Amino acid sequence: MNKIQVGFLVSYDYELLKNAIPLVYKHADTIYLAVDKDRKTWNGNHIHIAPEFFAWIKSIDVDNKIQLYEDYFYVNEMSTMACEVRERKMLAEKMGIGNWIIQLDADEYFINFERFVSFLKSKNHYLNSPEKHKVLIQPFHVSLYKKTKNGYLYVNKATKTVVATNYPDYTVGRKTNGRVIYYNALILHECLARTREELVQKLTNWGHNEEVDLERFMNKWDSVNELNYKEKENFFFLEPEKWKYLDFVAGSNFSELFENFRKEKEQGLYKSNFFIFKKNLGQFFKYLFK
């Protein structure tokens, strides 16, 4: 009990876990990898996971923290989002109520996970009778939009995301009906910075596939590059204005990207202390009498 339990959903973009897992490994108590037994996505498409990936997992798991959880997560009669919520709940059950349940995607790269874990441990009182005091811990995403010739385009404003909870009664994605607690941490989200083929695969198979106008979005994505991005705006795949502007960071690979981002961009993307205080105060009063 009171453990830091981290879960990843393993699917078509499993290779990205080679970037994500090392960032959380040291400070997690257990890491769960949820894999569909039939190797299907939530949309019912087949994927191939190379045996070499599982060999890599064994090679890095020096402390025996990683557990493989295989089950049938695709249900033909359910929508992609319903399949996602179902898988997340099944995974959370394995992770155990009474612990901090952190669920991450393969393309989410935590910056300073140690600091985030320290914050969670300072809130361990929420792990006592969690069904009576449901909370969601929300750090912030910095979303990568596109890989270019010399680096990456990314959304120049951090946006809230949900990754941790004490009571995983998920409703949509990782959202629950609990009280939100905002925390000033950043996750670099690879999101859309993939090859065109990989991006179409993601947008076709993820939980939001029925909400995205794929042709319209891809036309916009195709047209943007590191020379013209300042001339364009409104880049989000659902409500375009939520991602108003892009910025650029140099890097030919993940290591260079991560290092350059932390040196040059990270500090300018944190929220103000007043913003965090105001948001948390609002949530406190919203749930005071619930």
Structural class by helix and strand composition: alpha/beta
CA radius of gyration is 19 Å
The ordered string of helix (H) and strand (E) elements is EHEHEHEEHEEEEEHHEHH
Tell me what portion of residues adopts beta-strand conformation: 15-25%
How many β-strand runs?
A: 11
**Domains (count):** 1
Mean pLDDT: 94
Assembly category: single chain
The global form is: globular
Notes on the structure:
Helices cover 31% and strands 23% of the residues. It is α/β, with parallel strands linked by helices and 290 residues long. The protein has one domain (4-286). Strands 1, 2, 3, 4, 5, 6, 7, 8, 9, 10 and 11 form an 11-stranded mixed sheet that branches. Helix 1 (17-24) links the parallel strand 1 and strand 2 (30-36). It starts with a strand and ends with a helix.
Features:
eleven-stranded mixed beta sheet, alpha/beta, globular
Give a brief description:
The protein has 290 residues and is of the alpha/beta class. It has one domain.
Secondary-structure map with pairings?
Elements: E1 4-10, H1 17-24, E2 30-36, H2 51-60, E3 66-71, H3 80-95, E4 100-104, E5 108-110, H4 113-122, E6 135-147, E7 151-155, E8 159-160, E9 164-165, E10 179-189, H5 196-205, H6 214-223, E11 246-250, H7 254-264, H8 273-286
Parallel strand pairs: 1-2, 1-4, 2-3, 6-10
Antiparallel strand pairs: 4-9, 5-10, 6-7, 6-8, 6-9, 7-11
